[in-house]
TrEMBL record:
It comes from Streptomyces lateritius. This is Acyl-protein synthetase LuxE domain-containing protein. PANTHER family: CAPSULAR POLYSACCHARIDE BIOSYNTHESIS PROTEIN. It comes from the Bacteria. Residues 14-360 form the Acyl-protein synthetase LuxE domain. It holds the Pfam family LuxE. InterPro entries: ANL_N_sf, CapK_Type1_Caps_Biosynth, LuxE.
Length: 383
């Protein structure tokens, strides 16, 4: 299938035969690679140094030849050299600041934005089948944080829902307000909860401490994005997370869906009901050897995740991440074909750098300040 056909018919694109999928992915990557190698002087130099051109990309096995951009390049002051499109055509600048405080900046031109919005909308329809209901967003709004990729991705869901509410404002989260909003929607529309795992976890912790067990709706979803490790380094257990959602929100595990992506890439891998994150057919995940990232590992082997994306016209979205994981090509019980990806951890020495980390770190710092403040009535009176 051609790229435009895949975006327009995701139900067919996610169910191609293995040979059709290989041909579709290879053609999409070859086309994107040719465009960037021809029109991007910086990237063309990388291709010439590697001795590779679009004519060398004939099969899926050849995708390993495509030069990758280390994700840290997006943190450099001169990251604009990565651009294929002119800066005058940039529509969005997406930023992510991790524990190191240096932001990654990924600039997207008009054509890329149009493609990405279409792709994300198509994936939400394909995997979630939502067309109505209400969304409780446990994150800031795009008005408050227009530069955050996670928030932008969540915001696309608004176009599929009848109502929504953003509960995090000025980096403060009030679980009582969240419960009040859920009560408001009860019996009038299906209630969905959307947010990074740590903020959904805060809501669950409040319900647990207050011994409150809700029963949401049969079609309710909990949709998460943003990683399963807190800025403190503490991991969030997915099994415990799912169990608490079932106990305190009344939502079964197959209605809890996590997603994987990074701001430097347009790829968003969405979980099906079997908790396998499906790589869209306009993207390809290549697992590389930790010691030699020019070497691609076989499916099932753990290594560094490289994300290849055919949607980007703004810059070459062939990214060597600092994430570690695996890909799987075995058939999924849901019937979708292609790759699924599993994220395991960050590379040793790599900082935590997702939007959720920034939000959590700031919320925690604000709460510590609030706890340390002396109430006005208790303050000593001078004189």
């Amino acid at each position: 299938m051609e790229l435009a056909a895949m975006l327009g018919c995701p139900d067919v694109a996610f169910r191609q035969s293995e040979s059709e999928w290989e041909a579709s992915v290879t053609a999409a990557m070859r086309g994107a690679f040719a465009e960037h190698a021809e029109h991007n002087a910086f990237y063309r130099a990388q291709c010439e140094a590697a001795g590779v051109s679009a004519e060398d990309i004939d099969t899926l096995a050849d995708l390993v030849k495509i030069p990758l951009l280390p994700v840290r390049m997006f943190k450099q002051p001169d990251a604009h050299v990565l651009m294929t499109a002119p800066l005058t055509e940039v529509e969005l600048e997406i930023r992510s600041t991790g524990t190191g405080g240096v932001p990654s900046v990924a600039r997207r031109d008009v054509k890329t934005v149009s493609r990405v919005m279409t792709a994300i909308f198509a994936q939400y329809r394909e995997f979630f089948q939502v067309g109505k209901g209400a969304g409780l967003f446990l994150c800031p709004s795009t008005a408050e944080t227009p530069e955050m990729g996670m928030v932008k991705a969540f915001n696309v869901l608004n176009g599929l829902l009848d109502d929504h509410a953003y509960i995090v404002r000025d980096y403060a989260f009030d679980p009582e307000e969240a419960l009040g909003q859920l009560d408001k929607w009860e019996e009038s529309m299906t209630r969905h909860i959307i947010g990074p795992p740590f903020l959904v976890g805060r809501l669950l912790r409040y319900l647990e401490l207050e011994d409150i067990a809700l029963k949401l709706d049969p079609e309710s979803l909990v949709v998460t994005l943003g990683g399963w490790k807190r800025y403190t380094g503490e991991s969030i257990s997915r099994e415990e997370f799912n169990a608490k959602i079932e106990k305190y929100l009344g939502i079964p595990a197959d209605r809890v869906r996590d997603m994987y992506g990074m701001i430097e890439s347009n790829m968003l891998a969405v979980e099906c009901e079997h908790h396998r994150k499906h790589v869209p057919p306009w993207s390809y995940v290549s697992i590389r050897d930790v010691e030699d990232t020019d070497v691609e590992l076989a499916p099932g082997k753990t290594g560094v995740i490289a994300l290849m994306d055919a949607l980007s016209t703004g810059y070459p979205a062939f990214i060597l991440s600092e994430d570690v994981g695996e890909v799987d090509h075995t058939p999924c019980p849901c019937g979708r074909t292609g790759q699924t990806v599993s994220f395991r951890r960050r590379l040793q020495g790599a900082e935590l750098g997702c939007c959720a980390v920034s939000i959590e770190k700031f919320i925690d710092s604000q709460e510590i300040v609030a706890e340390c403040e002396i109430p006005a009535a208790a303050a000593p009176v001078e004189g």
